[in-house]
Amino acid sequence: MCGARGNSENTQIEVDHKDGRKDDLRVSDLNTQTFDDFQALCKACNDKKRQIC
């Protein structure tokens, strides 16, 4: 289920860092990141986010 669009029909779901700019050192560290630092997005939404971040 895409966290942005709310559907999953005919989409590829990807796991994405919520911190798209990667400027939070805690999130970048495998030892300190948490499940809540990630979100499920469909490929289309994740591609759009990458253009912005």
Automatic annotation (TrEMBL):
It comes from the Bacteria. Pfam families: ICEA. This is IceA1. It comes from Helicobacter pylori (Campylobacter pylori). The lineage of its organism: Bacteria, Pseudomonadati, Campylobacterota, Epsilonproteobacteria, Campylobacterales. The gene is iceA1.
